[in-house]
Write a structure and sequence with these properties.
about 160 residues; mainly alpha; 2 domains; about 60% helix
């Protein structure tokens, strides 16, 4: 859907307009379509690589870099004057949403903590939403940090590749 949003606005985004204005248009017309509901995604490696590829596709199209030019991703990012930030933005949104859920009470907190009744199906345990946030800390430590908003906002639990 993000590619469709880009191609709908292709004539504006690939025009002779100033680059900074076109970048602002991408961030206001394409990124919201792409990031809709990203707070609840479970990110596996395949999704991360597809999102990185989409981000590079958008910047390459905007900079009018053809695949035959053999330009590296770093060269394209320097042409556009951007840093890779899509995965970082997704993780930041996810962290904010999870902090909101952990501070509250209700069904969503129970689902996230896995306090549902009944038997779990066979096989490996599914990847949960908290696995992106909890890496070196325990769940109790993460929940304690979420209760203090200023500590939660300053906490960076990940390092994006």
């Amino acid at each position: 859907m993000a590619k469709q949003a880009y191609t709908r606005n292709k004539n504006i985004l690939e025009s002779k307009m100033e680059l900074s204005l076109r970048k602002r248009l991408v961030k206001s017309l394409v990124w919201p379509v792409l990031l809709y509901g990203c707070e609840t995604w479970t990110m596996r490696k395949t999704e991360k690589t597809r999102l990185e590829a989409l981000e590079m596709w958008i910047w390459r199209k905007m900079a009018r870099v053809n695949w035959k030019d053999k330009a590296t991703n770093e060269e394209v990012m320097q042409m556009v004057g951007e840093q890779r930030g899509l995965l970082q933005a997704i993780l930041e949104r996810k962290k904010n949403w999870i902090g909101h859920i952990l501070r509250g009470e209700g069904l969503m907190l129970e689902v996230m903590e896995g306090r549902m009744e009944g038997k779990r199906g066979r096989g490996r345990k599914r990847i949960g939403m908290l696995e992106d946030i909890i890496r070196e800390n325990s769940y109790a430590e993460t929940k304690r940090k979420a209760q203090n908003r200023s500590e939660w906002r300053g906490w960076r639990p990940w390092t994006c590749p």
